[in-house]
From TrEMBL:
PANTHER family: OXOGLUTARATE/IRON-DEPENDENT DIOXYGENASE. This is Fe2OG dioxygenase domain-containing protein. It holds the Pfam family DIOX_N. Residues 208-310 form the Fe2OG dioxygenase domain. InterPro entries: DIOX_N, IPNS-like_FE2OG_OXY, IPNS-like_sf, Oxoglu/Fe-dep_dioxygenase_dom, Plant_2OG-oxidoreductases. The lineage of its organism: Eukaryota, Viridiplantae, Streptophyta, Embryophyta, Tracheophyta.
Length: 365
């Protein structure tokens, strides 16, 4: 998670968007209004099936016959190459746990503002309640409230930020996160197999993987055409697991073919996306894809996101098995802790963070 800033950061006044919703003003504060080029085009009709994010049936990977297994592995590889996103059904996580984490998340955001502000997200950090990735007083803001916690390894936890309300919040987060961690390890095994690698290669490389959780609450907005729920970005993780609220509006959009494609929620499915780390390790074969969140005029939306990444000590670079004279290295070797620090100390700006690892043309000579 975020290091302590080395210098004071003046982020100016940041309105709490849930409080803005309560006031019911039609006018949007200037800091939330995006420049014309950044404003979302809100979908009025559902996507055709050909434009939907692929769906992976995890039960076929775990328990399928050979034909089912190979078919699903091929679909997984194509998803990672063409989309960088896929939805997982039959993932094996108890549905009551998925419902419970959504309930405690929603209950937290429904607490009075003064209660939530007991766990403030300090400027320049990404744990606590507030808005992350804000570094100046004139930076545009997202129409979103966040609450984030570091989980693993233990030293990234800040006990002062774990709330006492709602009841069983911490217990539910712990139980949910253990199951998501198991899922991430399994997905990485199948990603390795889809690449023709040893199934345990990522787990052995990653060491004690870093894991964090972030809950995003997007209140209804009177002018969803002027704001963004979350700025466009790719994730610095290896894998990101997104749980969308039951019956929530379509909020997640991914950039494909220079167009923003909405991700239609599937009941009880989990959305998985490839992070920058996997793009680097696969030398660009599996891609981390730019994505954003939009808001809705009438519906609130809750999402619960888990980030899973290598230990901070891990040295990363394209895997030798996935490079040759016809596929030279696109990325340099680097320390993941350094990249993580770089990622969380810059505002979200498309895939700009990944330039940290790219080999520039003069370096390739």
């Amino acid at each position: 998670m975020a290091p302590i800033p080395l210098f004071p950061i003046n982020v100016g006044h940041i309105d709490d968007v849930q409080e803005l919703k309560k006031v019911k003003k039609a006018a949007i504060p200037k800091r939330f209004v995006r420049d014309v080029a950044e404003r979302p085009t809100l979908a009025t009709a559902p996507c055709s099936p050909l434009k939907n994010v692929p769906v992976i049936d995890f039960s076929k990977l775990l328990h399928g016959n050979p034909n089912e297994f190979h078919g699903e592995i091929s679909k997984l590889a194509a998803s990672c190459e063409d989309w960088g996103f896929f939805q997982v059904i039959n993932h094996g996580i108890d549905l009551s746990l998925i419902e419970n984490i959504a309930k405690v998340g929603m209950d937290f955001f429904m607490l009075p503002l003064e209660e939530k502000q007991k766990y403030p997200m300090a400027p320049g950090t990404v744990q606590g309640y507030g808005q992350a990735f804000v570094f100046s007083e004139d930076q545009k803001l997202d129409w979103c409230n966040m609450f984030a916690l570091g989980l693993v390894p233990h030293f990234i936890r800040n006990p002062n930020l774990w709330p006492t309300k709602p009841e069983k919040f911490s217990e539910t987060v712990e139980n949910y996160s253990k199951e998501i961690r198991k899922l991430c390890k399994s997905i990485l095994c199948f990603l390795a197999l889809s690449l023709g690698l040893d199934r345990d290669v990522f787990e052995e490389m990653f060491g004690e993987a870093v894991q964090a959780i972030r809950m995003n609450y997007y209140p209804a907005c009177p002018r969803p055409d002027l704001v963004l729920g979350l700025s466009p970005h790719s994730d610095g993780s290896a894998l990101t697991v997104l749980q969308q609220g039951k019956g929530s509006s379509v909020g997640l959009q991914i950039l494909k073919g220079n167009k923003w494609v909405p991700v239609q929620p599937i009941p009880n499915a989990l959305v998985i996306n490839i992070g920058d780390t996997i793009e680097v390790l696969t030398n660009g074969r599996y891609k981390s894809v730019e994505h954003r969140a939009v808001t809705h005029k009438e519906k609130d939306r809750l999402s619960i996101v888990t980030f899973y990444a290598p230990s901070y000590e891990t040295e990363l670079g394209p895997m030798p098995e996935l490079t040759d004279k016809n596929k030279p290295c696109k990325f340099r070797r680097y320390n993941h802790g350094e990249y993580s620090k770089h990622y969380v100390t810059n505002k979200l700006q498309g895939k700009k963070a990944l330039e940290f690892a790219k080999i520039q043309p003069k370096e390739a000579l």
